[in-house]
Amino acid sequence: MLKFIAKRIAMAVPTVLIVSILVFVMIRLIPGDPIVLMLGDSGNPDLVREMRAALGLDRSLPAQFIVWISHVLVGDLGTSVTTKEPVLNLILSHFPVTAQIVLMATFVAALIAIPAGLLAAWLQNRKTDTAIVSTTIVLVSIPSFWSGIILIWIFGVKLDWLPTYGFQSISDVGWSGMRYLILPVLAIAMSEVAVLTRMIRASAIDVLRLEYIAHARAKGLSERRVLLRHTLPNAFGPALTVIGLILGHLLSGAAVIETVFTLPGIGRLLVESIYARDYPVVQGCLLFIALMYVLVNLIVDLLYPLFDPRIKM
Amino acid sequence: MQLRKIMTYLGAFLISHIGAGTSNAAPLPEIRFADAIETPTSIPGHRSRNTATDGVMLHVVESLVALRDDLSVAPMLADSWQISPDGKTYKFKLRKGVTFHNGAPLTAADVQWSLKWLMDPKSESYCRNQYDGTRGAKVIGVEAPSPDTVIIRLEKPYGLFLMQTANIQCPLAVLHPSSVDAHGNWIKPVATGPYVFSEWKKGQYILLTPYAGYKPRSEPSSGLAGAKLAQADVRFVLIPDASAQKAALMSGQVDAIIADSENPPPKDPRWTVAVEQDIDTNALLMQTRDPLLSNLKLRRAIATILDLPALARALTGGAAPYNPSLVPVVSRYYSAVHKVGFTKNIDAAKKLLAEAGYRGETLKIQTNKRYPDVYRMALLTQMMLSKAGIKTELEVLEWATQVTNFREGKFQLMAFTYSARIDPAIMYADILGDKTKAPMLQWTNPDASKILADIDAVGFDSPSSAGSAIRKAAFESLHKLMIDDVPMIMLYNTPVLVAFNNNLSGFKPWPLRRPRFFNVSKK
Q1: How far from each other are the two terminal CA atoms of chain B, in whole angstroms?
Q2: Which residue of A has its CA nearest to B250?
Q3: In a domain, B6, yes or no
Q4: pLDDT value at position B457?
Q5: Which has the closest alpha carbon to B206: B227, B236, B183?
Q6: B206 lies in a domain?
Q7: Please, is A172 exposed, middle or buried when counting C-beta atoms within 10 Å of its C-beta (0-12, 13-18, 19+)?
Q8: Is A175's CB within 8 Å of B18's CB?
């Protein structure tokens, strides 16, 4: 097991290195300059030159990269060009917000999708299946920003039950912080539940056609036992991969939802930093995101044998 | 059974706790204003700024003088001032009884410290260039001969100096030295304004609370000048999305927003949508160094093809008139001369096009979609030009790319908005000059540059002074020259829609756009 983990981490090193080089070069290839954006339509060229020199942006790209990567290797992601705050602090203050929402949304989505997908597969081509599949098509077709606005409109404006903006961490204010999470979690879960339900349904249909399911039924096992004991564990494997991908994707920043609900998450930090051409923050965020993907996929791989004993590490 | 019991307890716990956390009773009502952007700097008023920074700081910090509603200069921390005959020395007499937010009395030494700190490169203050001669005045000395007297010496006369110290973007913020730590690192503004900078939750809000020791001036309130009374806590909340801002206003969760002009809140007795004339300038820029557009006749033809009043009406929904001048409509220097611009005349334009030798070449119009009005300006311009046979192509760029192109002069035509300048001279200074040295300048005309240089030294502190009349005449001359040269086509000053709940009393928009919450109460 430890050997497997070490091997996977070693495999991630070139991935992260390539990502860091690509990110470093690509963000600088995009037209635009952080100093120019800070000064806007005022400020003279001398001031631009002076500020660029002060921030080390006047050096050659390789020189800038060497400085940056040598700092990264000792855990220093640099400081923001616009706010002068350490990038690591920015990431560590924004990531928990995204993590809270994304983990809850994925949990809620899985909680709904697993029984729904299993039920649809079990009742394939019947009215219930059609209803579930149709619902997932509708849900997957709704862009999350739109569902977010609609949820705000219904629960914030019309019913006045929940706040329409803002965030308070559960760790700071206790359970009252949940009021700020309900709508964004719902908005994210709505689209994810659709993807997961369809995935589990498809896997479960495949499993239900296998001989050992017929054998289980021939033994006289109840349908509930057939579904939960013999179908679900085998159908869940592919879904686990999808959950891993969804988690990796969402943890890297649900920027749209974070913008609609004014959540100070890592997605919004990244988008705003791109707009501001805040190179150190963009580089730091993307490096962090690459590491998150590696970590989530590692966890998924480690969980796989629990559901499929044929897979060995 | 056991599981059911646990679930019942858990449900009861959640219901009893959710919603209970935000019920701390506030001693004062709280006004909430939704801002679409957050202050970019680590601490407001330090390394960088944007309009969000300005909006917060104008409640917290004060300068020696302040701007009135008509953008003229009025006393604030200084009761009076004298300018030496050579225009290079300013002597201020400080108001008595003013204290900082930490209770310390205001003295001339604090003003001296504030200006020195602002100009010290170590402070990394964004506003340093406003006082070191890079842009405008060059301060060469600041003295405090007595506790209530401050003397500021300039290298050479600069007519806009007082106005510069009151500018909301880069005021001469009078701060207590405890605003920085022992190493000179910025902590937070400890100033003299009616509000105290109380709390900043990054990415979420900034909370200002009334300063109990604030002594308002006796003059009536006007702009940032006169009496200022804090009657409620003020929370600047960050809501980037325009629809979410609107929803927050309609649900009563915020009290005021800058409304989206394309999707304002509907009419309702609970709130008011007021139109405010801003001084941002919207214009179609023309690159006079471009092989085609260096031809004056082609530029004039373009200006004559466009139905500019109709364009302004269409882009503002009739909320702002066509303004052919760089002098804003609300400026006290605005006169009938500035209303003279270009008149649509397709036949004359076609003649000019023929004389210019235009042979159907495609011109590119740069724009962006971050600011919808700018995009629509480019779109309507393209449509109008096509009717007279001018071929154009829209280049829709990301904002950062467009700003870079603007600064480097890499464009043919560009739909653009200049942010507010408090005096027309500052606006002219930012567009007038040698393009070969500074490509972001739009207009090269030695005669115009001379007029501008001449009025730089003219004082204008009293609207009735001779200096004011000289400046007015100079701006009229500059406008006439600009219409002759057509380096750009001015369209209108941005109208701003401010939506605020009717439970706010005393809330008034003003030309500098940033909402003011002193003298505002909440029912």
Answers
A1: 51
A2: A157
A3: no
A4: 61
A5: B236
A6: yes
A7: exposed
A8: yes
Integer Cα distance of A22 and A282 in angstroms: 12
Alpha helices in B409-465 (DSSP H): 424-431, 446-456
Q: Specify whether B262 is located in the same domain as B407.
A: no
Question: Which tokens is B307 given?
Answer: 């139905």
- Residue B187's domain comprises 32-270+502-522
Q: Would B10 be classed as within a structural domain?
A: no
For residue A267, list chain B residues with Cβ-Cβ distance below 8 A.
none
Q: Chain B window 163-202: which residues touch A at a Cβ cutoff of 8 Å? A: 202
Residue of A28, A35, A41 best to disrupt the B interface, most CBs of B under 10 A: A41
Contact B400 A157 (CB under 8 A): no
Contact A166 B47 (CB under 8 A): no
Nearest Cα of chain A lies from the Cα of B62 at a distance, in angstroms, of 23
Mean pLDDT of chain B: 88
User: What mean pLDDT comes out for the span B114-121?
Assistant: 89
Tokens standing for residue A205 = 């249909």
Fold category of A95-307 in CATH: MetI-like fold (1.10.3720)
Rounded to a whole number of angstroms, the distance from the CA of A262 to the nearest CA of chain B is 5
Please provide residue A282's backbone torsions phi and psi, each rounded to the nearest 5 degrees.
Answer: -60, -50
Report the residue of chain B nearest A51, measured CA to CA.
B124
- For residue B324, what are the CA distances in angstroms to A143, A203, A252, B479, B494? 43, 67, 48, 9, 13
Same domain, B208 and B321: no
Minimum-distance CB partner of A164 among B22, B248, B416: B248
Contacting residues of A for B123, CB less than 8 Å apart: none
Between β-strands B362-368 and B413-418, what pairing exists: parallel, antiparallel or unpaired? parallel
Answer yes or no: do B255 and B289 share one domain.
Answer: no
Using CA coordinates, name the residue in chain A closest to B238. Answer: A262
**Distance of residue B456 Cα from the nearest chain A Cα, in angstroms:** 18
Say how far apart CA A231 and CA A212 lie, in whole Å: 10
First to last CA, chain A: 6
| Same domain (yes/no): B341, B247 | no
pTM for the model: 0.77
For residue A190, the one-letter residue type is M
Instruction: Mean pLDDT check: name the lowest of B144-158, B186-200, B342-356, B460-474.
Output: B460-474
Q: Is residue B362 part of a domain?
A: yes
What's the complex ipTM? 0.70
Alpha-carbon distance of A136 to A50, in angstroms, equals: 56
Instruction: Identify all chain B residues contacting A40, using CB atoms and an 8 Å cutoff.
Output: 403, 419
Are the Cβ atoms of B21 and A160 closer than 8 angstroms?
no
Could you give phi then psi for residue B89, rounded to 5 degrees? -125, 130
Strand order of the sheet with strand B195-201? B195-201, B205-210, B233-238, B30-35, B256-258, B488-501, B271-286, B413-418, B362-368, B391-397
Whether B289 contacts chain A with CB within 8 A: no
Query: Token pair for residue B242?
Result: 């325009």
With beta carbons less than 8 A apart as the criterion, state whether B261 and B276 touch.
no
Both tokens of residue B256? 């005021």
> Could A82 and B17 be called an inter-chain contact, meaning their C-beta atoms sit closer than 8 Å?
no
Give which of B9, B15, B129 to mutate to test A binding, by max A Cβ within 10 Å.
B129
Predicted confidence (pLDDT) per residue in A207-225, tens digit:
888 888 888 888 888 888 8
Best mutation target, A81, A83, A182, A261, to test chain B (most B CBs within 10 A): A83
CATH code (residue B395): 3.10.105.10
Residue B21's pLDDT band, with cuts at 50, 70 and 90, is very low
Q: What 3-state DSSP class applies to B427?
A: helix
**Contact B204/A166, CB-based, under 8 Å?**
yes
**Nearest CA-CA partner of A149 in A296, A257, A9, A30:** A257
Is the domain of B452 the same as that of B509?
Answer: no
